[in-house]
């Protein structure tokens, strides 16, 4: 079961490549028939514009900032990264981005332990503007983490892709 | 006359001794009579009011920034908070800046003077938590901070508020406005130029946004600012992180208390204070004293962190120091250096003419080092980096007491060339030059908690 989910995840195109990848409807229809547990493996978003993507094992995940946030921030000139091994609760900072005189925290969407940080951002902070939702090598993801059981529960309550799109559209209008 | 820029040093005293130092009331006696003070209890358990105003009587930058951070993290999520304070002479670098690049560290330790104050005044070195570039503060500068809920928050909103406060004061010198960098400039009619009078910086956390700015009103040290914000190592350092933008500055030419009152009035008008606070007990005349503030555990911890050398110096992003234009160091793939191909100024004549020095530091830790005397054509074989026992790798940059200790241990100068005397003289001269460019800062900051980055 887990291995099938992992294969699906590998087959998924990078978020930066195509809008096809953003079609959560398409992905749902593929993943659901195999899904026995309550965990739906779609990428989820927070109201503070972070994303988290849990992989097929239901435990390892990647965290970054959304394309909406990356645009809104303007040119990112520095990314602060956390120490590997740090344990955080949902809402705790796992780094910060500096752009246009502003240091803005990146908050963890779920409770987790940091397993690696994207050192590419140390030298090329602009990557986070260009490929904010790309979790591949060279992409703008921020940290890789091991999600706690509590974090898996928190994941379920976050916004799905379409809900997040509605949320950002609404905040644009207001 | 630079205001915002690139380069840093720290004050050397404990929290306790800070209490005894330089205490100057921010507000005049006649005002204080009408004003009450926040108790430790009120500062520990902050008001739930929607609008809140705090004024600090402390001029200690570490305490004021820690009170500010306490307000950011602990005032209720729906509240909007105004905080006003003045600092004794200090330089404040942005969260992700490099003190060796932004500041003349030796001058900060030695102190500056002005006609009104001929005694040298030491300058505190502070790394703040918000982004942006380096600014200079003294008692002629007022810092204003607005903390508000994140939804609907705009970068220019509170700079515009301060501009309205300035316009209300009828400044004869020129016309204030917010520029494209979110700073406030004064368009001076006389010479048709714009001078920066206020710099902005921001810190955004999960639900709250903090905007703080300076306002240069009657700084006695105006003419020393550019000297303090000019590092002798600038031609040799290439740093990750944030560069400052140099701008010409001027004093607005009004009193600090006049300005503070005008900002309070505009804040109250903007947020309809009278309607909101009709039934509240707290008023806008409450003062924060540093003795009450330091009894609040979170504020005290904040002061200790801001004063620690691991924060001031140890939070410096990756940078290289090199005396010759060169490319990335070899074998450095995980944390490659930025290239620095700028032409360099000629070396001082008392140094070996073909001397080349190269260092890479990340969070104060030396990753690569080399001191070579190219007339011996020794290339990389002579770099300190090949000898991991070298002193440079045993200390953080900010723990070096003198460069003599470091240069003596370097296998840099070929023992087959010159005489023992000439080699000793060369080493001494190199060490003195490095002491000038990357001055030891030991003892200028308090002992610190374990390093965050290793």
Automatic annotation (TrEMBL), chain A:
Domain Lipoyl-binding as annotated: residue spans: 60-146
Q: Tell me the cofactors it needs.
A: (R)-lipoate
Q: Recite the UniProt keywords alphabetically.
A: Lipoyl, Mitochondrion, Transit peptide
Is-annotated flag, keyword Transit peptide? Answer: yes
Q: How is the cofactor bound?
A: Binds 1 lipoyl cofactor covalently.
Biological processes, Gene Ontology terms: glycine decarboxylation via glycine cleavage system; protein lipoylation
Coiled-coil residues are none
User: What does the record give as the function of this protein?
Assistant: The H protein shuttles the methylamine group of glycine from the P protein to the T protein.
List, alphabetically, the NCBIfam families matched. Answer: gcvH, PRK01202.1
Q: What is this protein called?
A: Glycine cleavage system H protein
**From which organism does this entry originate?**
Rhypophila decipiens
UniProtKB/TrEMBL annotation, chain B:
Q: Name one GO molecular function term.
A: lipoyltransferase activity
Where composition is biased (Basic and acidic residues), the residues are 325-343
- Which pathway? Protein modification; protein lipoylation via exogenous pathway; protein N(6)-(lipoyl)lysine from lipoate: step 2/2
Pinpoint the BPL/LPL catalytic domain residues.
Answer: 76-275
User: Where does the record place the region Disordered?
Assistant: 324-346
Task: List, in alphabetical order, the GO biological process terms annotated in this UniProt record.
Answer: protein lipoylation
Enumerate the Pfam families for this protein: LplA-B_cat (PF21948)
> Cross-referenced PANTHER family, in alphabetical order?
LIPOATE-PROTEIN LIGASE, LIPOYLTRANSFERASE 1, MITOCHONDRIAL
Q: Which family does the record assign?
A: Belongs to the LplA family.
**Protein purpose:** Catalyzes both the ATP-dependent activation of exogenously supplied lipoate to lipoyl-AMP and the transfer of the activated lipoyl onto the lipoyl domains of lipoate-dependent enzymes.
Q: What is this protein called?
A: Putative lipoate-protein ligase A
């Amino acid at each position: 079961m887990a291995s099938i989910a992992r294969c699906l995840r590998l087959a998924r195109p990078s978020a930066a490549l195509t809008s096809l990848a953003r079609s959560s409807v398409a992905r749902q229809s593929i993943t659901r028939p195999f899904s026995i547990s309550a965990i739906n493996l779609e990428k989820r978003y927070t109201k503070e514009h972070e994303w988290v993507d849990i992989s097929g094992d239901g435990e390892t995940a990647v965290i970054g900032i959304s394309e909406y946030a990356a645009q809104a921030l303007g040119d990112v000139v520095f990314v602060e990264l956390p120490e590997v091994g740090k344990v955080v609760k949902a809402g705790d900072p796992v780094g910060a981005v500096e752009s246009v005189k502003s240091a803005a925290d990146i908050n963890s969407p779920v409770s987790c332990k940091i397993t690696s940080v994207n050192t590419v951002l140390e030298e090329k902070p602009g990557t986070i503007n260009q490929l904010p939702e790309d979790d591949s090598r060279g992409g703008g993801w921020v940290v890789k983490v091991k999600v706690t059981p509590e974090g898996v529960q928190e994941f379920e309550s976050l916004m799905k892709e379409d809900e997040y799109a509605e949320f950002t559209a609404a905040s644009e209008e207001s | 006359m630079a205001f915002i820029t690139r380069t840093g040093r720290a004050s050397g005293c404990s929290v306790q001794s800070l209490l005894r130092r330089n205490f100057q009331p921010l507000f005049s006696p006649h005002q204080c009579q009408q004003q009450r003070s926040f108790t430790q209890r009120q500062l520990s358990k902050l008001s739930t009011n929607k609008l809140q105003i705090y004024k600090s009587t402390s001029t200690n930058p570490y305490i004021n920034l820690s009170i500010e951070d306490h307000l950011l993290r602990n005032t209720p999520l729906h509240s909007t908070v105004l905080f006003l304070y003045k600092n004794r002479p200090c330089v404040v670098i942005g969260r992700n800046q490099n003190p060796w690049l932004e500041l003349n560290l030796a001058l900060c330790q030695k102190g500056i003077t002005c006609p009104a104050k001929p005694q040298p005044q030491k300058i505190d070195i502070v790394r703040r938590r918000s982004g942006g570039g380096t600014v200079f503060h003294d008692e002629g500068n007022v810092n204003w901070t607005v903390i508000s809920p994140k939804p609907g928050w705009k970068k220019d909103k509170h700079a515009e508020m301060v501009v309205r406060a300035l316009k209300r004061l009828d400044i004869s010198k020129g016309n204030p406005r917010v520029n494209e960098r979110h700073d406030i400039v004064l368009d001076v009619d006389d010479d048709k130029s714009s001078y920066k009078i206020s710099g902005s910086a921001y810190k955004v956390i999960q639900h709250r946004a903090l905007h703080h700015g300076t306002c240069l009103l009657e700084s006695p040290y105006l003419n020393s600012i550019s000297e303090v914000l000019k590092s002798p190592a600038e031609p040799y350092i290439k740093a990750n992180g944030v560069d400052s933008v140099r701008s010409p500055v001027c004093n607005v030419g009004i009193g600090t208390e006049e300005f503070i009152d005008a900002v309070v009035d505009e804040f109250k008008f903007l947020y309809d204070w009278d309607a909101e606070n009709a039934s509240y007990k707290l008023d806008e005349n409450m003062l924060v004293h540093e003795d009450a503030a330091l009894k609040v555990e979170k504020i005290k911890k904040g002061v200790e962190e801001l004063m620690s050398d691991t924060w001031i110096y140890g939070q410096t992003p990756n940078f290289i120091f090199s005396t010759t234009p060169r490319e990335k160091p070899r074998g450095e793939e995980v944390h490659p250096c930025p290239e620095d191909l700028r032409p360099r100024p000629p070396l001082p004549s008392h140094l070996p003419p073909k001397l080349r020095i190269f260092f890479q530091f990340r969070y104060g830790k030396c990753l690569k080092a080399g001191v070579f005397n190219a007339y011996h054509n020794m290339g990389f074989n002579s770099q300190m980096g090949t000898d991991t026992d070298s002193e440079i790798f045993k200390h953080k940059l900010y723990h070096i007491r003198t460069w003599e200790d470091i240069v003596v241990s370097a296998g840099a100068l070929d023992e087959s060339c010159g005489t023992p005397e000439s080699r000793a003289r060369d080493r001494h001269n190199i060490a003195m030059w490095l002491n000038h460019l990357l001055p030891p800062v030991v003892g200028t900051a308090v002992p610190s908690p374990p390093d965050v980055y290793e």
